[in-house]
Protein 1
Amino acid sequence: MTKDKVLIFDTTLRDGEQSPGATMTHAEKLEIAELLDDMGVDIIEAGFPIASEGDFKAVSEIAERSKNSVICGLSRANFKDIDRCWEAVKHAAQPRIHTFIGTSPLHRAIPNLTQDEMAERIHECVTHARNLCDNVQWSSMDATRTEEDFLCRTVDIAIKAGATTINIPDTVGYTAPVESADLIRMLIEKVPGADEVIFATHCHNDLGMATANSLAAVEGGARQIECTINGLGERAGNTALEEVVMALKVRGDIMPYQTGIDTRKIMNISRRVATVSGFAVQFNKAIVGKNAFAHESGIHQDGMLKNRETFEVMKPEDVGLSGTSLPLGKHSGRAALRAKLSELGFDLADNQLKDLFVRFKDLADRKKEVFDDDLMALVYQNDSGD
Ligand code: KIV
Ligand code: ZN
């Protein structure tokens, strides 16, 4: 089966960095951009050049150093922003200008523009961006709360003005998977010229549906997913790169799409982003959480020791981990205790193991996790007859 390619657009350095408190230094941004480029991200949104002198410098330097990825900068829909964005990204071998405006009634009310005035602005700004750069992305911000007719009109204007990618953001994480797919499908069916551009999905996680919505949008015809490492982003964050990429890899049977991401580089970049942003990854976070490949209960550990597939749908090695972890705690059973002891070099007779197991359970009731050192102390206590 041939698989359609889905482009991965990473916005950790733009939307991710917009999370309150997640600011990164210049050197940290360069390092993350290099890791993104190296892992196979197709497009890196490196920042918002007009936002600050620092953002401008970071985008310019990331553009200069980029090897494989397209380097994109964000700009509001006005000439000043677009010119500044172009000044920063033009150093890249493959530059992209991304320009946007809020198209829903709530967002139109802020600049107080009528639909006709906004339509004219989109035409002028996309045309201007396209005169500077061959690769232009248009976003109708808050698309999922924009009237269908007006959304079609904005997309139509942007395509006619030369946009090469059309992004349909779920800016406030409001949409549901079935709507996400239908919206993209509807746009592709209704807007002339839609088959000549790439449709992108950009989801936020306010209701915890960003990953599901992004994958549904792909089912509807989107071929670019916008996401961030660890799902970093404003409020509840953006779609997590590691989740959509691994979902497409693991469930290729029902979602026949491929990405160019080297998934074995996921853990390393996840840890680096957590460190530089100061946003720790929750233990039970899918794919990159500390517990994503850890099993403590006796039934699960016993199953895992016999066949990894009993309780894991993907291999930890595929995301860059050295293996599964079977931490010992009060829910653990004899099989995991025996396996851990043998890993530590102890081969206990059945009666010794039986005795140790009782003392291990007693300790585990008092401690959250029983570490190797605790276990060795228990074994030596046994030996010395204490
Ligand atoms: O969430 C959003 O709508 C955005 C746009 C700027 C694309 O981040
Ligand atoms: Zn966003």
Note: The pocket of zinc ion (ligand 2) is lined by residues 15, 169, 171, 202, 204, 238 (CB under 6 Å).
Protein 2
Amino acid sequence: MPENQRHGHFIAGETVQPSSGEYFDSLNPATGEVLYQAARGNAEDVARAVHAARRAFEDTRWRGLSQTRRGRLLRALGDVIAEHADELAHIETYDNGKLLREMRGQMAALPEYLYYYAGLADKIQGDVIPASDRRLLNYTLREPLGVVGAITPWNSPLTLTTSKLAPALCAGNTIVIKPSEYTSASVLRLAELAIEAGLPPGVVNVVTGFGAEAGQALVDHPDLTKISFTGSTQTGARIASAAASRFIGSTLELGGKSPNIVFADADLHNASMGVVAGIFAAAGQTCIAGSRVFVQKGVYDELLERVTARARSIRIGDPLADATELGPLAFAAQRDKVAGYVDLGREEGATVLVGGRATDAGLGGYFYEPTVLTDVTNDMRVVREEIFGPVAAVMPFDDEDDVVRLANDTDFGLAAGVWTSNLARAHRMAARLDAGTVWVNTYRAMSPMSPRQGFKNSGAGVEHGTETIRDYTRLKSVWINT
Ligand code: NAD
């Protein structure tokens, strides 16, 4: 990846310099070195992007397209992404420190999001409604909303952005994206690829910059017809109330503190691998991280032994290297936040069984050791708050009732894992857990076909699957006197 490059915004099919002339540094978290500079967007830049998106929405080159042709364009974008998958994987690894191995897998899967919604584009339709008076014909039209604003975090920039872009465009909207200030590069490249795929200029726009400046300006723009946000619960609450005050819809994918539950009848090898992957993949920087591990008392010691042995053997280092198993946190403040939580855990009385130290891995970057905390209880802040790092809190439980009570005693409700060989128990637990996604004998499975929704403080609205189309369309009822 070329270093010290300057990136502008991407508006109406062109790279546009920031109106303020200001840029900010984006760092490589594995080394702490400056990678590139991104444009510091402000309200003027956002207004320009929303205007371009509005014009593109009205333009016959987009609005006049048949739904079938719109689907073909999405498919073409999927094909172009597939051609550039390796390039995109490298950009994100440099930008947020995720393992190149993992990014290659994510980028290989990314076109599927476009293909899935390409297939749905010509299946969006209204209904004919039986009217009480036979002289009246009543039917519905499912229409696009207009300009959608998408605000995304740094942990999986392209996958999370595409989860919004694909259904938004499928339904005929245009989009303005504000990526995280820590990871602007891959989303800018995606917008360029949309032009290469044949999407009209202005359909996909990107304004980079800070949340309180560019993000807030996007949320406040009066021409926005919907906001789709993925990020922290705190920011999500502000965005939801701003959207509600203007009566526009918001889809919110927020934080988590997910339970990963191991019953004594589970295959302990698979369960321990699932626990390790659930919390240490992407250095714990996933919304669905299984950060609360509940283990049934009969197998507590054995499971803990397996998990700690594996945690000790995890190879920390350069995310570009094939042998590396744990990369850096995405930026210094995130590393410090994780370190602060582990210190807090110690003060609260937790035992740090493994890990518990920051390191630069000899590279100068922002790494933190895989960490296992025991002697923790549900009232401690390390158990209640999202750490977003490689820190697991492990707790014993007695039986199903006990663990359902403990697992559901949280403000979040994003995901949950259950490890058991008892089929009836698997179904019972799936029904009783207060989480939008429940995995049994697996963890982290995801697909554009499968709807996901955060319960409680983990979100509102559905992403992926067919249902999300409702959130990107509006319904019009037409009455005709025949
Ligand atoms: P964040 O809330 O700090 O930032 C997310 C985005 O919002 C960034 O682009 C940021 O610039 C922007 N933003 C910040 N303040 C804003 C404001 N006042 N107005 C408008 N935009 C603003 O979150 P983060 O630290 O980037 O991401 C980590 C969080 O994201 C974690 O809580 C994680 O659980 C969550 N997340 C959730 C999912 C999910 O699908 N539920 C997926 C990934 C990450």
Note: The first helix runs from residue 43 to 58.
